[in-house]
Amino acid sequence: MIELDDDSRDALAEAFNLALGEAAASFADIVHEEIQMTVPVVELLPRAELVRQLQGLPRQGTSTKLCSIAQRFDRQQGGLSTEAVLLFPEHGSLEIVRRMLGDCSPAAEQISELEQDALAEVGNIIINSCMNSLAHIFDAEMIGTLPGVRSAEPQELFASHPGNEMVLMARIGMNMLTQQISGYVLFLMELSALETGIERIRHFFELDPTPA
Amino acid sequence: MSDSHATILVVDDSKISRNIACGLIRNRCPAARLVEAGDGTEAIAQARVHAPTLVIMDVNMPGISGIEAAASILREQADTRIVLLTANVQAATLAKAEALGVALFRKPIKGEVIDAILALLDAPSPAVEVCP
C-alpha cells in the first residue's frame, strides 16, 4: 500500500489547487459568469472507488450519464503522464455550449449538431489551462492528445482499466449558480508516474527530496 | 480597422471555434475576406491559394501542428502575418512561437482577443507574447 507523507500530500494538493483554479477561471470565461469552486480533493484510491465517488456526485435531472471530455498528457522526455477529465451532467452540456457561443449562437438545431465539437473545445480550453500551470510546476513540456468526448455512465468511463488499479486523483467541483450546473475536473496519475510527479512538485515548492 | 479588406485565414480543427472567430471578425471588419481551414495541411494549401494578410492558427490539431503549419507558410510567404490562438500556452509553446516570430493569444476566443489580433494588421511587426 502506497502512502504519501504529509509534506508530499500538501505539495500535491497545492499544485493541483493552483492548476484547478485556472480551470475554474477558464470555465467562468467561457460561460460568462462567476463559477463557485469546491475545495480540491487529492487522494490515492482504486479506480473502482473513483467510480463509486462519481456515481455519488450530486446531479440534477433524471439522466445518470455524465458527459466526459478527456485528454492524456505525457512529458516530452517520458516518465510522467496524467489523464485529465472534465465531467458534466449530460443535461447541462447544451446549456454550456449555448453560453459559450453567446452572441454568435446559431439556431437550436445547429447547436445540437455542433454540440460534440463545442464540448471538445470547452474541454480543450479548460483542461489546457490546468495543464499550462502543471507543466510550469513540473518544469516540463506536456504533450497532449486531442480531446475525446463521450457520454457514459460513471462505471463505463474507466471500463478499460482494472478496477483495483490505484491512481492519484485530484478533483474540483465547479458550479454555475444561475443554471444549477456542476462540472468536475479530474486529474488522474498512475502510480508509475507518481514518484516523478511528487519529485517535480516537491522541487517546485523547494521542499527536500522525498525521504527514502 | 484600417485594413478592412484584408484576407484572413482562420485555422482550427474545432468548427465552433472557427464560427466564433469568424463571427467576431465579421462584426468588426465586414469587408474582410474570410477563409477557413480545419487542420494544418489544409491551412498551408489555403494560404497558397489565397495569400492571406493574416492567419489565425490553432496549435493542437490532428496531423501537423499549428506551429509546423505556420513555419511552412512563413517559408513560402515570409510577409504573411500569423498569430497562434490556443489554449496551450505552456512555456514550451511560447518558446516555439518566439522562435518563429509569431504572436500567441490565449483561448477562449472573445471580442477583446479578436480586437487585439486585428490591431496587429496595423502594427509594424509582430510582438511575441501571451496576450491578453
Descriptive keywords:
heterodimer, A: alpha+beta, Chemotaxis protein chec, eight-stranded antiparallel β-sheet, 6 helices, B: 132 residues, alpha/beta
Structure description:
The complex is a heterodimer of chains A (212) and B (132). Chain A is an alpha+beta fold. Chain A has 6 helices and 8 strands; from the N terminus they run αββαββααββαββα. Chain A has a single domain (6-204), classed as 3-Layer(aba) Sandwich (Chemotaxis protein chec), CATH 3.40.1550.10. In chain A, strands 1, 2, 3, 4, 5, 6, 7 and 8 form an 8-stranded antiparallel sheet that branches. The mean pLDDT of chain A is 84. With 132 residues, chain B is α/β, with parallel strands linked by helices. Chain B has a 6-stranded parallel sheet with strand order 2-1-3-4-5-6, sandwiched between helices. The longest helix of chain B has 14 residues, at 15-28. Chain B is globular and about 35 Å long. Chain B starts with 6 loop residues before the first strand and ends with a strand.
Topology record:
The complex is a heterodimer of chains A (212) and B (132).
Chain A: H1 6-31, E1 35-37, E2 41-46, H2 47-55, E3 66-75, E4 81-89, H3 93-101, H4 108-138, E5 142-144, E6 148-152, H5 154-157, E7 166-176, E8 181-190, H6 191-204
Antiparallel strand pairs in A: 1-7, 2-7, 3-4, 3-5, 3-6, 4-8, 7-8
Chain B: E1 7-11, H1 15-28, E2 33-37, H2 40-50, E3 54-57, H3 66-76, E4 81-86, H4 91-100, E5 103-106, H5 111-119, E6 130-131
Parallel strand pairs in B: 1-2, 1-3, 3-4, 4-5, 5-6
Helix pairs in contact in B: 1-5, 2-3
